[in-house]
Amino acid sequence: MARVAVTGTASYLGGRILRRLVDARGADEIVAVDIASPPAALQGVRHRMVDLTLPGADARLVDVFEEEGVDTVVHAAFFTNPRRDAAYSHELESIGTLHLAAAAAASGVKHLILRSFTHVYGARGKNPNFLTEEHPADTSSRLAWVRDKVEAEEHAFSFSKRYPTLGVSVLRLATLFGPGVHTFYTRIFSKRVVPVVLGYDPLVQLLHPDDALEAVDACLAAGPVGIVNIVPRDTLTLLTALHLSDKLTVPVPHLAAYPVADFWWASGVGEGPGGFIDYVRFLFVAEGEKARRELGFEPRYTSRDALMAFLEYRYPETAARARATQEAEA
């Protein structure tokens, strides 16, 4: 029996992917590969405990994939939030993906799907309005959070070139925003007062989690497609998103923003290191045409829809005011 293995099932998106696949295919056809057990509600799901950071994880994974008859792997073991223990993040995301790709190639897995991020393009002043999949990733990013994900993609494609039977799909998702999402982005939008970079108001893309799940389904049906951007149907400016969220903004000169953010991060107070200032200063929005063309994926939600869904989940009164404002503007 050909089964689908899912890694990172303890994460928000990985857990939802697991549940969706179980509902669609049945528990016996899905294998959860994670340190943590699947939720008790998903009775019958096959669970194989593998720590991707340990030496020998590749050999352990080969055994799992061969014993379970796995032909497709959905790899979702990536951190949405920056972490202060950068060494562990590197071991999980970069080295862990190296182990996983090596095992997939050795055991005859046909399709490896990686959950990635549009952040890997980097945020720069010279970026075009919409980045295509041909745009190079930011391999020299000063954020380890980005570099680890770029390296993970490189490991997957390296093995697919050496083992042509292994097809790879990399789904570069825009920033997840919606009900149940808890990331450093949603924590920023949970504050009453939000610092912004003086003189900058970049476009942002907010992806509803349901669209992310639809994209995974489409990729499973279509087969290997390489790198694909998964983005919403529109963009918002950052200040518009904050305005709709009823936030007070405090403009900070960019020369001060970077060291202040680094200081807060080092002090354990900030949501991310100074390198993330680039992502609220410059563009990194992506084009979704390839997903429509090769996956048949058409997002159902706009960035505004995703923002409103988050507000209705966390701040219903704020959402009501935002909807009233939206209707008045219309």
CATH class of the domain at 3-177 and 206-232 and 285-299: Alpha Beta
Q: Gap between N and C termini, in Å?
A: 53 Å
CATH superfamily of the domain at 3-177 and 206-232 and 285-299, by name, is NAD(P)-binding Rossmann-like Domain
What's the helix-strand series?
EHEEHEHEHEEHEEEHEEHEHHHH
| Structural shape | globular
Main β-sheet, in a few words?
7 strands, parallel
The name of the CATH topology of the domain at 3-177 and 206-232 and 285-299 is Rossmann fold
Q: Can you count the beta strands?
A: 13
Task: Give structural notes.
This protein has eleven helices and 13 strands. The strands form four sheets. Strands 3-2-1-4-5-6-11 form a seven-stranded parallel sheet, sandwiched between helices. The relative contact order is 0.13. α2 crosses α3 (86-107), α3 packs parallel to α4 (144-162) and α10 (303-314) packs antiparallel against α11. β4 (70-75), α3 (86-107) and β5 (111-117) form a beta-alpha-beta unit. It has a domain at 3-177 and 206-232 and 285-299: NAD(P)-binding Rossmann-like Domain (Rossmann fold, 3-Layer(aba) Sandwich), CATH 3.40.50.720. The chain has helices at residues 12-25, 57-68, 86-107, 144-162, 184-188, 209-222, 238-244, 254-266, 289-295, 303-314, 316-329; strands at 3-7, 30-33, 46-48, 70-75, 111-117, 167-173, 175-176, 193-197, 203-204, 206-207, 226-230, 236-237, 248-252. The chain has 330 residues and is α/β, with parallel strands linked by helices.
